[in-house]
Amino acid sequence: MIILFNCILLNNYVYKNSFIKYKNELSSPEIPLFRGAIIRAIGASRESGNLFHNHVSDGYNYIYPLIQYKRVQCKASILCIAEGCDAVLPLICEDNLHLQLYDKKGFQKKELFVVDQIAPQITKVHVSCESHDYYLNRWLPFNNENYEKLVP
């Protein structure tokens, strides 16, 4: 069983999370396409669905993403935290999900996504005095514009 945890340091906070893994393989460059297909499938608008895409009517919603699109063991996956769990219920209710993935050139690929695993959990998070190691994967600290401002 695969269980993913994302660290949210809060003092003795209990929250629910769910991990949904599909049987469909997904490459790293396809993660944004998968995200877009989920957003279209759920019909998330800027106002009603900002949990799915972290956009609001006047820009970005700068919060920790409560719905995260991932590739785990080469499979399409979604991690839902707190309110994100309730928002994805329509996706969980369908064992098979028809998604339309569009590549950057606009070509459409229809695919049937089949749920392989759903792992709901309740997690207790607390502040610890112990030292912990964290690993960042594919982290880009700067965009092109910020990099040019900071590096001569």
Molecular structure report:
There is one protein chain. This protein has 152 residues and is an alpha+beta fold. The protein is 22% helix and 36% strand. The chain contains 5 helices and 7 strands, in the order E-H-H-E-E-E-E-H-H-E-E-H. The protein has helices spanning 31-42, 50-53, 83-87, 89-93, 144-150; strands spanning 13-25, 55-56, 59-60, 67-72, 75-81, 96-102, 108-125. It has a 5-stranded antiparallel sheet with strand order 4-5-1-7-6. A two-stranded antiparallel sheet has the order 2-3. Residues 1-10 have low confidence and may be disordered.
Quick synopsis:
The chain is an alpha+beta fold. The chain contains five helices and seven strands, in the order βααββββααββα.
> Based on DSSP secondary structure assignment, what is the total number of beta strands?
7
Helix content: 10-25%
SSE-based structural type: alpha+beta
**Number of continuous helical runs:** 5
- Strands in their spatial order, largest beta sheet: 4-5-1-7-6
Distance between the termini: 48 Å
The backbone outline, from C-alpha atoms, is globular
Order of helices and strands: EHHEEEEHHEEH
Rg, nearest Å: 17 Å
Largest sheet: 5 strands, antiparallel
Strand fraction = 35-45%
